[in-house]
Design a protein that fits this description.
The chain has helices at 30-45, 68-71, 76-94, 111-118, 145-153, 155-164, 170-175, 185-200, 204-217, 222-237, 240-250; strands at residues 6-11, 14-19, 51-56, 61-63, 100-104, 107-109, 121-125, 129-131, 168-169, 181-183. With 261 residues, it is an alpha/beta fold. It has two domains: 6-200, 2-enoyl-CoA Hydratase, Chain A, domain 1, CATH 3.90.226.10; 204-250, Lyase 2-enoyl-coa Hydratase, Chain  A, domain 2 (Orthogonal Bundle), CATH 1.10.12. Strands 1-2-3-5-7-10 form a six-stranded mixed sheet, sandwiched between helices. It has a four-stranded mixed sheet with strand order 4-6-8-9. Strand 1 and strand 2 form a beta hairpin. Helix 3 (76-94) runs parallel beside helix 4, helix 4 (111-118) crosses helix 5 and helix 9 (204-217) packs antiparallel against helix 10. The longest helix is centred in the N-terminal third of the chain and has 19 residues, at 76-94. The two termini are 29 Å apart. The structure holds acetoacetyl-coenzyme A.
Length: 261
């Protein structure tokens, strides 16, 4: 399938989706949502895809938000549908069966930071800027920002960002726990790929189990979360990669994970 609003490619076992409307700073419109969903169908159907990276095309932006030109004429019902379509997409990314890294090369505002927060973690360029500026437009975040931001950085910082609409730079985003690592613009891509390759070399079943336990456990009490962890720990033991990892250690060799189920 040919895409107009994203670029979708595979680099070995790493899948890459680049948001590709640089003239509009990669603002998210319904076509971009649909194309990203299509690309995710491909990623899910491809057993050789081990990690997904999301990034933005162009020098300036990861995603500067939902497309304001699209939003301005929406009726309340249409706006709710648009909001749900973005939320559904970001739930899909959050629950994708392989790890997802947000490689934030520039502005990640509104729907952009909401997209990045649905990834497993965020690496950012020193030039990146983050914010939930919807309040400046007289609205609020609509793709999950009020919920994921408060869970990630705490309610007071989330309120300050959502209620002032101010932008923060990558260093501050790292200080509040939104971003894992900050790199120079030149180093960002290589460093993101390096981490992607490390994860791609691990067992598929255990990666998914770690992701599920952390995601789902955050919505459980500690005891239920730990019991879920035990179940997943047991499940990993039954996977070929689980057997291979422990056998390789005992045989003092490097494991060869196949991702077989
Ligand atoms: N929607 C539509 N178009 C956008 C856009 C957006 N979110 N962000 C930028 N653009 C467009 C601009 O209109 C401009 O288009 P033209 O060249 O045709 O005029 C082009 O991208 C370049 O932008 P600027 O000239 O404004 O670039 P700048 O460097 O001066 O400023 C910026 C950059 C600070 C990011 C500024 O573009 C900006 O404030 N953008 C809007 C950010 C925003 O409010 N995002 C939240 C959107 S609402 C949302 O996301 C709701 C939700 O949760 C669902």
């Amino acid at each position: 399938m040919t895409y107009e609003n994203i670029i979708f490619e595979k680099q070995g076992d790493i899948a890459v989706i680049k948001f590709n409307r640089p003239k509009a700073l990669n603002a998210i419109n319904p076509a971009m949502v649909a194309e990203t969903n299509d690309a995710l169908d491909d990623v899910e159907a491809d057993p050789t895809a081990r990690v997904l990276i999301l990034t933005g095309e162009g020098e300036k932006a990861f995603i500067a938000g939902a497309d304001i030109a699209h939003m301005v004429n929406l009726s309340p019902i249409q706006a709710r549908e648009f909001s749900r379509s973005g939320q559904d997409l970001f739930f899909r990314i959050e629950n994708l069966k392989i790890p997802v890294i947000a490689c934030v090369n520039g502005f990640a505002l509104g729907g952009g930071v909401e997209c990045a927060m649905s990834c497993d973690f965020i690496y950012a360029s020193e030039k990146a800027k983050f914010g939930q500026p919807e309040i400046n437009l007289g609205v609020i975040p609509g793709f999950g920002g009020t919920q994921r931001l408060s869970r990630l950085v705490g309610r007071a910082m989330a309120k300050e960002l959502c209620m002032t609409g101010s932008m923060i730079d990558a260093v501050e985003a790292k200080a509040i726990g939104l971003v894992n690592k900050v790199f120079t613009p030149d180093a960002l891509w290589d460093e993101t790929m390096k981490t992607a390759r490390i994860m791609a070399s691990k067992g598929k079943v255990s990666l998914k189990a770690a992701k599920d336990c952390i995601n789902r456990g955050l919505n459980m009490d500690l005891l239920d979360g730990c019991y879920m962890e035990s179940d997943n720990f047991g499940l990993c033991m039954s996977s070929p990669d689980g057997k291979e990892g422990m056998t390789a250690f005992l045989e003092k060799r490097k494991p060869e994970f196949t991702g077989e189920l």
